[in-house]
Amino acid sequence: MPSHTRFTAGALSAASTLILFGSAPTQAAGYKIPEQSLNSTALSAAYVANAHGADASYNNPAAMAFNEGGRALEADLTLIHLTRIQHDGASFDDRSQVENFQMPTLHYVSDDKDGWRYGFSMISPAGLSKRWEGTAAAFAEEFTLQTLELNPTIGFQVNDRFAVGGGL
């Protein structure tokens, strides 16, 4: 077998494996709710690297160790509104109902105890619902996904520039 054929087959195999396993989390993220605190809503995914305050307990437990001051608490209520979907097609018509949700979040970080900080977060990392009235109702009249995550965390400041942390 010529060397360029072996290289092509190997590269194709590696690329296929990477696409197959690398895209799996993306496929399952349709009901993900990334807005788990005020700062994570404002800064999106960029917030994880620079988390500070009570919500560091969820976004980056190691960063809790660098929080200035004492303990921190954040409680939020996010209101989610999904508009009605109306589809008028050649083969069928379909429509959904308006959906409204309330999503509470709670984050807590303890005082510094010799470099250690303990945290707790209560969030809803995924969810939402859709109720169909038209043709789609024959397959799924209502789909609802509700999740609740209770996450205890711990962070330790090793030195002025390095900390470790984790949670369940």
TrEMBL record:
The keyword Signal applies. It comes from the Bacteria. InterPro entries: OMPP1/FadL/TodX. Pfam families: Toluene_X. Gene3D superfamilies: Outer membrane protein transport protein (OMPP1/FadL/TodX). Residues 1-28 form the signal peptide. This is Aromatic hydrocarbon degradation protein. It is found in: Cell outer membrane. It is a multi-pass membrane protein. The keyword Signal applies. One of its GO terms (molecular function) is long-chain fatty acid transporting porin activity. Keywords: Cell outer membrane, Membrane, Signal, Transmembrane, Transmembrane beta strand. GO terms for cellular component: cell outer membrane. It comes from Candidatus Sedimenticola endophacoides. Belongs to the OmpP1/FadL family. Its main location: membrane.
